[in-house]
């Protein structure tokens, strides 16, 4: 019986809208999945979401999220 833990950014969404003052706002929403596997089969999983906005530091994000943030907000 081998237990392993996997943490991945499995869903990334670009969302546009307006703030309370009517200014256009774009943000990147990231869903992180944490899975516990036993011999390759998922026995537990949970999700966490966080939002990245222009001006935030996304340098610690996985490369796929960084690529999207660079495309949306500029490098």
Strand pairing plus helix content: what structural class? mainly beta
Order of H and E elements: EEEH
Q: What is the global morphology?
A: elongated
The fraction of residues assigned to DSSP E strands is: over 45%
Strand order of the largest sheet: 1-2-3
Please tally the helical runs, counting DSSP H or I stretches of 4 or more residues: 1
* Fraction of helical residues: 10-25%
* Unreliable residue runs: none
- Major sheet summary line: 3 strands, antiparallel
Radius of gyration: 16 Å
- The mean pLDDT is 95
| Amino-to-carboxy terminus distance | 44 Å
Number of strands: 3
Give a description of the structure:
By secondary structure, the chain is mostly beta strands. Helix content is 15%, strand content 59%. It has a three-stranded antiparallel beta sheet with strand order 1-2-3. The longest helix has 11 residues, at 63-73. The mean pLDDT is 95.
List keywords for this structure.
single chain, about 80 residues, mainly beta, three-stranded antiparallel beta sheet, about 60% strand
Quick summary:
This protein has 75 residues and is mainly beta.
Give the topology.
Blueprint: E1 3-18, E2 24-38, E3 41-53, H1 63-73
Antiparallel strand pairs: 1-2, 2-3
């Amino acid at each position: 019986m081998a237990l392993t833990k996997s943490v991945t950014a499995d869903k990334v969404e670009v969302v546009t809208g307006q703030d309370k003052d009517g200014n256009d706002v774009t943000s990147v929403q990231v869903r992180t999945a944490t899975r516990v596997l036993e011999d390759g089969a998922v026995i537990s999983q949970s999700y966490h979401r966080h939002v990245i906005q222009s001006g935030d530091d996304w340098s610690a994000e996985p490369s796929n999220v960084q690529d999207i943030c660079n495309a949306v907000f500029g490098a």
